[in-house]
Amino acid sequence: MRLAFLVAGEVGAPPVVLLPGRGLDHTDWARVIAHLAGSWRVYAPDLRGHGHSEWPGVYSLELMRDDVVALLDHLEVARATFVAHSLGGMVSCLIAEEYPDRVERLVLEDVPAPHPAGLPLPAKPEGALAFDWAMVEQTAYQRNHPDPAWLERLAKISAPTLVIAGGAPSHLPQDQVADLAARIPDARLVTIEAGHDVHAKRPEEFLAALTEFLER
Questions:
Q1: What is the torsion angle, in degrees rounded to the nearest 10, for the CA atoms of residue 211, residue 71, residue 25 and residue 164?
Q2: Minimal CA–CA distance to 95: which of 153, 140, 44, 53?
Q3: Are 158 and 183 in contact (CB under 8 A)?
Q4: In whole angstroms, what is the distance from residue 178 CA to residue 194 CA?
């Protein structure tokens, strides 16, 4: 796998990895990158099947997890803070479960606990896409049929964790976001009434919560 990624910030600064939601790429984090780059070494990859990374036609959350860990190995980043949205947040949880020594802190933006969702596959949009539709189909199947171990192993996440919920405007069941926070030991839950894309809709509040957590 070849992954495209953006790097910002000074060499030697504490590393932070930004993982976007499904259908999005590193450009979705532009404002967050600009905010963090003064104090952090920021790595913002496009997940497989997204943006300028390869579109191999084979997708799973586990493969995305291992892609990100392999990228960190390539970059010689032993341990990092992860800030992740939606699908990227689910990938980050799997990294924290499988590779706890690689995760310094964890910030999860509007990420539900991995219960079976029972959601219909969305209709494919017309025209060219910035992501592989096969990725949507295959990750949607996993959303509806998650590995039960993913839920059970949330209790083993040892990294300090902040969960930012999008509140009532979000299309995600907020009780599932709260359940995710409740299952991760000592996780902090903050609700910002912005909908699913908190960092885009209410950037000042998102960045304030993020900065306060990272500077503890």
A1: -30
A2: 153
A3: no
A4: 16
Look at residues 135, 138, 58, 69 and name the one whose alpha carbon lies nearest to residue 98.
Answer: 69
For 141-186, write each residue's pLDDT tens digit: 999 999 999 999 999 999 999 999 999 999 999 999 999 999 999 9
What would the pLDDT profile of 127-152 be if each residue is shown by its tens digit?
999 999 999 999 999 999 999 999 99
State if pTM tops 0.90: yes
CA atoms within 13 A on the CB side of 206: 28
The number of beta carbons lying within 10 Å of the beta carbon of residue 122 is 11
Q: What CA–CA distance (Å, rounded) separates 21 from 173?
A: 16
Task: Give the separation between CA 35 and CA 17, rounded to whole angstroms.
Answer: 14
The CATH number that applies at residue 171 is: 3.40.50.1820
Total domain count for the chain?
A: 1
Residue 164 to residue 191: CA distance in whole angstroms: 6
> Are the C-beta atoms of residues 192 and 202 closer than 8 Å to each other?
yes
- Domain span including residue 38: 5-214
